[in-house]
Amino acid sequence: MKPSTKLKHPALVKSLRKAYSAERAACFAYIGHARSLKDPEEKRRVRQIEEDEWDHRKHVLEIMNLYDIPVSRYNEIKFYVIGKIIGYSCFLIGRFMPYFFAGKLESGNVCEYFVMIQYFHSLGIDTHDEILYEMGIKEKEHEVYFLELIRTEKWLPYFEKVFSWGEHSSLNDVDLENKYPVVKSEMYCKSHVPNSGIPTDASPEKNSPESAK
Ligand SMILES: [Fe+2]
Ligand SMILES: [Fe+2]
User: What span, in angstroms and rounded, lies between the C-alpha atoms of 165 and 69?
Assistant: First the structure.
Protein backbone atom coordinates (compact mmCIF):
# COMPACT_ATOMS: atom_id res chain seq x y z
CA MET A 1 0.00 0.00 0.00
CA LYS A 2 1.29 3.48 -0.85
CA PRO A 3 2.02 5.74 2.14
CA SER A 4 -0.36 8.60 2.74
CA THR A 5 1.72 11.75 3.03
CA LYS A 6 1.41 15.52 2.74
CA LEU A 7 4.66 15.76 0.82
CA LYS A 8 3.83 15.40 -2.86
CA HIS A 9 7.21 14.19 -3.99
CA PRO A 10 7.42 10.39 -4.30
CA ALA A 11 11.19 10.26 -4.79
CA LEU A 12 11.81 12.41 -1.72
CA VAL A 13 9.36 10.44 0.42
CA LYS A 14 11.01 7.20 -0.67
CA SER A 15 14.43 8.59 0.05
CA LEU A 16 13.48 9.76 3.56
CA ARG A 17 11.88 6.43 4.45
CA LYS A 18 14.89 4.53 3.20
CA ALA A 19 17.36 6.80 5.00
CA TYR A 20 15.47 6.39 8.27
CA SER A 21 15.78 2.59 8.17
CA ALA A 22 19.26 2.49 6.62
CA GLU A 23 20.65 4.70 9.40
CA ARG A 24 19.71 2.01 11.90
CA ALA A 25 21.37 -0.63 9.71
CA ALA A 26 24.52 1.51 9.87
CA CYS A 27 24.22 1.65 13.68
CA PHE A 28 23.98 -2.14 13.95
CA ALA A 29 26.91 -2.53 11.56
CA TYR A 30 29.04 -0.13 13.64
CA ILE A 31 28.10 -1.85 16.89
CA GLY A 32 29.53 -5.08 15.47
CA HIS A 33 32.44 -3.26 13.89
CA ALA A 34 33.44 -1.54 17.15
CA ARG A 35 33.22 -4.81 19.08
CA SER A 36 35.43 -6.56 16.55
CA LEU A 37 38.21 -3.96 16.83
CA LYS A 38 41.13 -4.28 19.22
CA ASP A 39 42.54 -0.77 19.29
CA PRO A 40 40.71 1.26 22.00
CA GLU A 41 40.94 4.53 20.05
CA GLU A 42 39.54 2.92 16.90
CA LYS A 43 36.74 1.38 18.99
CA ARG A 44 35.94 4.75 20.50
CA ARG A 45 35.84 6.45 17.09
CA VAL A 46 33.55 3.84 15.53
CA ARG A 47 31.22 4.13 18.56
CA GLN A 48 31.13 7.88 18.02
CA ILE A 49 30.19 7.31 14.38
CA GLU A 50 27.44 4.95 15.54
CA GLU A 51 26.12 7.79 17.76
CA ASP A 52 26.14 10.12 14.73
CA GLU A 53 24.01 7.60 12.82
CA TRP A 54 21.45 7.36 15.65
CA ASP A 55 21.26 11.17 15.54
CA HIS A 56 20.68 11.05 11.79
CA ARG A 57 17.85 8.58 12.23
CA LYS A 58 16.27 10.89 14.80
CA HIS A 59 16.55 13.94 12.54
CA VAL A 60 15.14 12.09 9.52
CA LEU A 61 12.17 10.96 11.61
CA GLU A 62 11.55 14.54 12.73
CA ILE A 63 11.31 15.59 9.09
CA MET A 64 9.08 12.62 8.23
CA ASN A 65 6.74 13.43 11.12
CA LEU A 66 6.32 16.99 9.85
CA TYR A 67 4.75 15.64 6.68
CA ASP A 68 3.01 12.58 8.16
CA ILE A 69 5.30 10.22 6.31
CA PRO A 70 4.93 6.76 7.82
CA VAL A 71 7.92 4.58 8.62
CA SER A 72 8.23 1.71 6.14
CA ARG A 73 7.87 -1.60 7.97
CA TYR A 74 9.37 -3.34 4.97
CA ASN A 75 12.49 -1.13 5.08
CA GLU A 76 12.75 -1.50 8.85
CA ILE A 77 12.84 -5.29 8.61
CA LYS A 78 15.07 -5.38 5.55
CA PHE A 79 17.66 -2.98 6.96
CA TYR A 80 17.46 -4.56 10.42
CA VAL A 81 18.59 -7.84 8.88
CA ILE A 82 21.23 -6.18 6.68
CA GLY A 83 22.67 -4.22 9.62
CA LYS A 84 22.86 -7.28 11.87
CA ILE A 85 24.50 -9.40 9.17
CA ILE A 86 27.13 -6.73 8.46
CA GLY A 87 27.71 -6.29 12.20
CA TYR A 88 28.36 -10.00 12.74
CA SER A 89 30.44 -10.31 9.58
CA CYS A 90 32.93 -7.78 10.96
CA PHE A 91 34.22 -10.55 13.25
CA LEU A 92 34.97 -12.77 10.25
CA ILE A 93 36.49 -10.62 7.53
CA GLY A 94 39.54 -9.09 9.18
CA ARG A 95 40.35 -5.42 9.69
CA PHE A 96 40.60 -4.04 6.17
CA MET A 97 37.24 -5.04 4.68
CA PRO A 98 34.94 -3.58 7.36
CA TYR A 99 36.70 -0.23 7.02
CA PHE A 100 36.70 -0.39 3.23
CA PHE A 101 33.01 -1.19 2.87
CA ALA A 102 32.03 1.26 5.62
CA GLY A 103 33.94 3.95 3.72
CA LYS A 104 32.27 3.07 0.46
CA LEU A 105 28.83 3.05 2.07
CA GLU A 106 29.43 6.42 3.72
CA SER A 107 30.62 7.79 0.39
CA GLY A 108 27.28 6.86 -1.16
CA ASN A 109 25.27 8.28 1.76
CA VAL A 110 26.70 11.78 1.35
CA CYS A 111 24.70 12.65 -1.75
CA GLU A 112 21.47 11.19 -0.41
CA TYR A 113 21.17 14.15 1.94
CA PHE A 114 22.25 16.75 -0.61
CA VAL A 115 19.79 15.34 -3.14
CA MET A 116 17.04 15.65 -0.50
CA ILE A 117 17.87 19.35 -0.21
CA GLN A 118 17.39 19.71 -3.95
CA TYR A 119 14.13 17.76 -3.89
CA PHE A 120 12.82 19.99 -1.11
CA HIS A 121 13.89 23.07 -3.07
CA SER A 122 11.93 21.82 -6.08
CA LEU A 123 8.88 22.10 -3.80
CA GLY A 124 9.88 25.56 -2.59
CA ILE A 125 10.95 24.30 0.85
CA ASP A 126 14.27 25.32 2.36
CA THR A 127 13.41 24.74 6.03
CA HIS A 128 15.52 21.59 6.27
CA ASP A 129 18.62 22.81 4.44
CA GLU A 130 20.78 23.17 7.49
CA ILE A 131 20.14 19.78 9.08
CA LEU A 132 20.35 17.92 5.77
CA TYR A 133 23.58 19.76 4.91
CA GLU A 134 24.99 18.92 8.34
CA MET A 135 24.16 15.23 7.89
CA GLY A 136 25.65 15.11 4.39
CA ILE A 137 28.88 16.69 5.61
CA LYS A 138 28.99 14.31 8.59
CA GLU A 139 28.74 11.33 6.23
CA LYS A 140 31.66 12.79 4.29
CA GLU A 141 33.68 13.04 7.51
CA HIS A 142 32.92 9.38 8.17
CA GLU A 143 34.07 8.46 4.66
CA VAL A 144 37.32 10.39 5.05
CA TYR A 145 38.02 8.86 8.45
CA PHE A 146 37.62 5.30 7.15
CA LEU A 147 39.75 6.02 4.10
CA GLU A 148 42.54 7.43 6.30
CA LEU A 149 42.67 4.18 8.27
CA ILE A 150 43.23 2.02 5.18
CA ARG A 151 45.06 4.44 2.87
CA THR A 152 48.33 2.55 3.11
CA GLU A 153 46.89 -0.97 3.05
CA LYS A 154 48.19 -3.07 0.17
CA TRP A 155 44.70 -4.29 -0.70
CA LEU A 156 43.26 -0.84 -1.29
CA PRO A 157 44.29 -0.39 -4.97
CA TYR A 158 42.77 -3.77 -5.88
CA PHE A 159 39.55 -3.13 -4.01
CA GLU A 160 39.35 0.36 -5.52
CA LYS A 161 39.50 -1.12 -9.01
CA VAL A 162 36.76 -3.64 -8.31
CA PHE A 163 34.44 -1.55 -6.14
CA SER A 164 35.11 1.94 -7.55
CA TRP A 165 35.87 3.60 -4.25
CA GLY A 166 39.13 4.43 -2.55
CA GLU A 167 41.95 6.92 -2.60
CA HIS A 168 41.22 8.24 -6.10
CA SER A 169 37.50 7.60 -6.42
CA SER A 170 34.55 8.79 -4.40
CA LEU A 171 30.79 8.53 -4.87
CA ASN A 172 30.31 12.23 -4.17
CA ASP A 173 31.89 15.59 -5.01
CA VAL A 174 32.21 17.02 -1.49
CA ASP A 175 35.63 18.34 -0.53
CA LEU A 176 35.91 19.01 3.20
CA GLU A 177 38.86 21.34 2.65
CA ASN A 178 36.80 23.58 0.33
CA LYS A 179 33.21 23.39 1.47
CA TYR A 180 30.33 25.32 -0.06
CA PRO A 181 28.18 27.12 2.51
CA VAL A 182 24.66 25.83 3.24
CA VAL A 183 23.10 28.34 0.83
CA LYS A 184 25.17 26.91 -2.00
CA SER A 185 24.58 23.26 -1.13
CA GLU A 186 22.80 22.77 -4.48
CA MET A 187 26.28 22.79 -6.01
CA TYR A 188 26.80 19.31 -4.57
CA CYS A 189 25.71 16.02 -6.10
CA LYS A 190 24.08 17.55 -9.19
CA SER A 191 24.66 14.39 -11.20
CA HIS A 192 22.67 12.42 -8.61
CA VAL A 193 19.43 14.25 -9.38
CA PRO A 194 18.03 12.72 -12.60
CA ASN A 195 14.95 14.94 -12.47
CA SER A 196 12.97 16.74 -9.82
CA GLY A 197 10.81 13.65 -9.26
CA ILE A 198 7.73 15.72 -8.54
CA PRO A 199 4.34 15.12 -10.05
CA THR A 200 2.88 18.02 -12.05
CA ASP A 201 0.23 18.98 -9.46
CA ALA A 202 2.78 19.60 -6.70
CA SER A 203 3.19 23.21 -5.64
CA PRO A 204 5.22 24.91 -2.89
CA GLU A 205 2.09 26.11 -1.06
CA LYS A 206 0.69 22.60 -0.79
CA ASN A 207 3.93 21.21 0.51
CA SER A 208 5.29 23.56 3.14
CA PRO A 209 5.62 22.15 6.66
CA GLU A 210 3.11 24.75 7.85
CA SER A 211 0.45 23.56 5.45
CA ALA A 212 1.22 19.97 6.40
CA LYS A 213 0.08 20.50 9.98
FE1 LIG B 1 24.17 8.66 8.70
FE1 LIG C 1 27.76 7.90 8.39
Answer: 33
